[in-house]
Amino acid sequence: MQGTVDGFTYGLVTPLVAYFMACLGGALGLRCTTRSMLVAGSWRAGWLALGSVAIASGIWTMHFIAMMGFTVEQTPVHYDKPTTFASLGVAVLMVGAGIFIVGYRGATGTALFTGGTVTGLGVASMHYLGMAGMRLNGRLEYNTLTVSASVVIAVVAATAALWAAGQVRGFLWSVGASLVMGLAVSGMHYTGMAALSVHLHGSTGTNPAGDSAAALLAPMMIGPFVFLCLAGVVVMFDPLMVMGKPDWSPAEIKRPGVPAHPVATHVVGRRPAVRPVQERGHRRSRTPQSR
């Protein structure tokens, strides 16, 4: 027997809130990734880790907010707690792997392709593992072509988002990139849901194992949401996160060959000669033109 599936039980409320959470996680994660490219050492790893968890938390929260609007008319839908938690762990690990590749290798060429592919596959894996955590009196089946399309959307969206993060531009650039990323992630989610069909078992009188969506998902989403708020505070109090890349960085003044004093250029014959200007007691050199 074919089940009647409804992914919009509460109308546009769950899709819009889910989209907002995807944009919030994407914006924070991309700004952290951008910030990591302006520093080195352990600071870079810290910013990349923060960005990874922010993006994964936003995507995971988006998915299960959208799933709160998912119902099957003939049977209640419950969720297995360990599998639901595991989907968050998979998202953090795989998104983190992709972001670290781009953070250390740069958002170009092979590194961008590899990082975007790993991150996109992480998003898709989180989605379908979360779906595997559903418990109902029926069997889930997927259309292979539509599932493939959803995975392609996730990979392309992740690659484009990481490329945008690598541009190291201003705050508005990242906001625009996060809006596009949120749209792509939401599109991937609902494309994957369009691939789903539910075939009910003969007897639907017994309740499936697991917890209901309201009992399980609402408390579980508090942790990722609080983390996103804390990550937002970190972003707001770091000026470089808001303004983008400065004209110079403190690390540049320590590079070999950079003089500690201003440099004056004097013309000798037809070739310019560069001489450091002394702060006190310097003697102005005379050129052939001044004689």
What does this structure look like?
The protein has 291 residues and is mostly helical. The protein has 9 helices and 9 strands. It has helices at 13-36, 42-67, 81-105, 109-132, 144-166, 171-194, 213-220, 222-236, 239-243, and strands at 5-6, 71-72, 78-79, 134-135, 138-142, 196-200, 211-212, 263-268, 271-276. The strands form 4 sheets. It has a 3-stranded antiparallel beta sheet with strand order 4-3-7. Strands 1-2 form a two-stranded antiparallel sheet. β8 (263-268) and β9 (271-276) form a beta hairpin. α3 runs antiparallel to α4 (109-132). The longest helix has 26 residues, at 42-67. The N and C termini lie far apart (103 Å).
Number of strands: 9
Structural class by secondary-structure content: mainly alpha
Order of strands, widest sheet: 4-3-7
Shape: elongated
**Biggest sheet, open or closed, and with what strands and sense?**
3 strands, antiparallel
Average residue pLDDT? 77
Q: Whole-Å distance between the termini?
A: 103 Å
- Give the SSE order as H and E letters: EHHEEHHEEHHEEHHHEE
Our Rg estimate from Cα atoms comes to 26 Å
Percentage of residues in DSSP E strands: 5-15%
Q: Helix count?
A: 9
The share of residues in helices is: 55-70%
The unreliable regions are: 242-269, 276-291
